[in-house]
Amino acid sequence: EPEVTQTPSHQVTQMGQEVILRCVPISNHLYFYWYRQILGQKVEFLVSFYNNEISEKSEIFDDQFSVERPDGSNFTLKIRSTKLEDSAMYFCASSETGTAFIYGYTFGSGTRLTVV
Amino acid sequence: AQTVTQSQPEMSVQEAETVTLSCTYDTSESDYYLFWYKQPPSRQMILVIRQEAYKQQNATENRFSVNFQKAAKSFSLKISDSQLGDAAMYFCAYRSLGNDMRFGAGTRLTVKP
């Protein structure tokens, strides 16, 4: 069964440093998403991406965040200057186009980001 | 804004018994979709079951079924014949056309042998 792949599984970074979280969505999916989950809390929407541009973003997704699809397979989330409160599990997800949105998203296994 | 509420932070069930996890949501949309996701200790988000709002028939998927009450905006998940592998966080989620998925706070399910 097709999978969404995220790397790395765990990243530790110093406060103020830039991090890039990587995702390889399912190959025929055209909609991409980032969610985050602070330990023990709910899964929160960050951003959705379609046709090489952001289609929606939440209030969490401020200027320190950016997303990019640098090639035909990768989808990245960049955090420019990490803060302690950015420590969380970050999930990438993808979905098909059109009416297939009803089938929900396929999530990756997540990247645990720890900011020290 | 759409909100999803899961009022049970934790639930427990005896192995082989049945448990029901509650979820309510708030929306002004008429066309939307509801989902239950399972998050085991591996942290992966796994789709368990989904329901189209326009369908009156409750969705079932093997031991998992939902009780969808559209007027009450309620979407509970019933797990029958609970197994140890069902132990996980369960998230209720909502999505309407043109919007992205929103999750509830989750319910941690413990299965006792």
Summary tags:
heterodimer, A: 116 residues, mainly beta, Immunoglobulin-like, 7-stranded mixed β-sheet, 4-stranded antiparallel β-sheet, B: 113 residues, 6-stranded mixed β-sheet, 12 strands, 53% strand, globular
Walk me through what this model shows.
- The complex is a heterodimer of chains A (116) and B (113).
- Chain A is mainly β.
- Chain A has strands at 5-7, 10-13, 19-24, 31-37, 43-50, 53-57, 65-68, 75-79, 88-95, 106-107, 111-115.
- Chain A has a single domain, classed as Immunoglobulin-like (Sandwich), CATH 2.60.40.
- In chain A, strands 2, 4, 5, 6, 9, 10 and 11 form a 7-stranded mixed β-sheet that branches. In chain A, strands 1-3-8-7 form a 4-stranded antiparallel β-sheet, with no helix packed on it.
- In chain A, a hairpin with a 5-residue loop joins strand 4 and strand 5.
- The termini of chain A are far apart.
- In chain B, 0% of the residues lie in helices and 53% in strands.
- Chain B is built from no helices and 12 strands.
- Chain B has strands at 3-5, 10-14, 19-21, 24-26, 32-39, 46-52, 60-61, 64-69, 74-79, 88-96, 102-103, 107-112.
- In chain B, strands 2, 5, 6, 10, 11 and 12 form a 6-stranded mixed β-sheet that branches.
- In chain B, strand 7 and strand 8 (64-69) form a beta hairpin.
- Chain B is globular and about 40 Å long.
- The relative contact order of chain B is 0.34.
- The model of chain B has no long low-confidence stretch (mean pLDDT 91).
- The interface between A and B is medium-sized, with 23 and 23 residues.
